[in-house]
Amino acid sequence: MKKKLLSFLLATTMVATLATGCGEAATADTGADEPAATTETTEETTTASGDQTVGIAMPTQSLERWNRDGSYLKEQFESKGYAVELTYSDNKIDQQVKDIEGLIADDVDLLVIAAIDGESLSQVLADAKDANIPVISYDRLIMNTDAVSYYVSFDNYTVGKLQGEFVEKQLDLANAGDKTYNIEFTAGDPADNNAGFFFNGAYDVLKKYIDAGTLVVQSGQTDFDKVATPQWATDKALNRMQNILASNYSDGKTKLDVALCSNDSTALGVTQAIESDYWGDVKDVIITGQDGDVANLANLVDGKQTMTVYKAVANEAVATLDLGIALLNGETPDEGLISASGWNFDCAYDTESYDNNVAKIPSYLLVPTVVTKDNLEKELVDTGYYTLDANGYPQATN
Ligand code: GAL
């Protein structure tokens, strides 16, 4: 009883505070910049949840997964009666700052943000904090701010570890004896805090084989900074791999055995480079990825990409919804949220791993899955995330 009354009072106080705080922000920021043409903004008004609005800021529609994240999140919050404002910022940092300013000015009650550049939101999030708007850092950790309340993501280190272990197993590296294999790394955007976790997860598994000479990096590029791909851009990954192939694999006999790519957008570029600029067959190169983007799943079916690490963003949206509702109710969720929510997917509560340089951010971390040609149907189609088209290629259902 007591507990209920307290949360009711807290909720009431919070709503009152939010109303005041947001009102001030709205006055200060009214007339802020028009959204750019590339920015998608959707809004709904009347709600069954006390007219509360959730502001969702996604990075870009040009990387496939964020389209799925945006629509799942919108669908989840709207299904519980919240209004949703959803913005995409075309991978432009300044645009995302403006979009978040706009959401604050629009009096949103909760912010869910997947940052383009984890280090560029400190100022705008200070404004969110002043307006008492709780912030969930979605998928990517937002750095250098005390305004982030929680982080929802997948276990990012494990994503990379699964990629590394996949290569280890495919090549049976532990029993390689005198055999050697050539590998090249392609990592993600240095502005994305996840990118280092992915790279380290994979590298930590493979390092002992590189040290032992079983795995050889002909390009010599093994530092994250050297192998990183700004904006996770397919064309940048493609160009870099073309250069690597030209400089190290152009003699018609030096074989590329593995292209360890952190995600699917980079894997796509690397695969294209290998198809066009490499003497051997792309199907003989182990190529890793992450996300289950439609083009990459088609490559999986065709044998051009070997695996992808799939992250069920539908579940990430569900976790974000339940966390969001708790925050909107003025609660301070902890590990108990997981059992209380009755999720049908695994999730760990972690208060140690994600430090944003101001504090360790309490994190809800979901579990990623390895998808290959062999289990694609079971993991992605039977689960309802994708359907197969007439040609047997997966199409996303959301
Ligand atoms: C990461 C995300 C990955 C991948 C990448 C490119 O932050 O965790 O799933 O999509 O961004 O957008």
- Classification by helices and strands: alpha/beta
| Rg, Å, rounded | 22 Å
Determine the mean pLDDT.
Answer: 90
Strand content: 15-25%
Low-confidence stretches: 1-48
> What top-tier CATH class of the largest domain fits best?
Alpha Beta
Protein architecture, described:
This protein folds into 2 domains: 8-154 and 312-367, Response regulator (Rossmann fold, 3-Layer(aba) Sandwich); 157-290, Rossmann fold, CATH 3.40.50. The strands form 4 sheets. Strands 2-1-3-4-5-12-11 form a 7-stranded mixed beta sheet, sandwiched between helices. Strands 7-6-8-9 form a 4-stranded parallel beta sheet, with helices on both faces. The protein contains 13 helices and 15 strands. With 398 residues, the chain is an alpha/beta fold. The radius of gyration is 22 Å and the shape is globular. It has helices at 2-29, 64-79, 93-105, 122-130, 156-170, 193-211, 224-227, 234-248, 264-277, 294-301, 313-328, 336-341, 376-381, and strands at residues 53-58, 83-88, 110-113, 135-138, 148-154, 181-186, 215-216, 258-261, 286-287, 308-310, 347-350, 363-366, 369-371, 386-388, 394-396. The longest helix has 28 residues, at 2-29. Bound molecules: beta-D-galactopyranose.
